Amino acid sequence: MDKTPSDWAAAAIDTLGGPTKAAALITEAAMATGTARPISRQSVEYFVRERVPAEFCPLVEQLTRARGKAILCEQLRPDIAWGEVRGCCADAVKA
Q1: CB atoms closer than 10 angstroms to residue 62
Q2: What is the pLDDT of residue 89?
Q3: Hey, how many other C-beta atoms are within 10 angstroms of the C-beta on 34?
Q4: Is the predicted pLDDT of residue 79 greater than 50, yes or no?
Q5: Are 31 and 39 in contact, with CB atoms under 8 Å apart?
Q6: How far apart are CA 64 and CA 23, in angstroms?
Q7: The pTM is what?
């Protein structure tokens, strides 16, 4: 059975060390890059119940990739044309 975006979000949170640690890491990355707002543990838990906000997907991908278990934006939010957002082909990003 294929994983759902909620499954991928749960895997990302686990890879990042749980909701509290994930919130801290995402907030730190967001503040360093100025690409997203700070986030709480409750917001991270929302990722699994609902969906990851698009603004956080690249940060989650970057952080999970740094831990050797990349969870791609395309897995977290398949409803977004990430190839267009990134200005390139989505297949090139997976390579």
Answers
A1: 16
A2: 54
A3: 7
A4: yes
A5: no
A6: 13
A7: 0.84
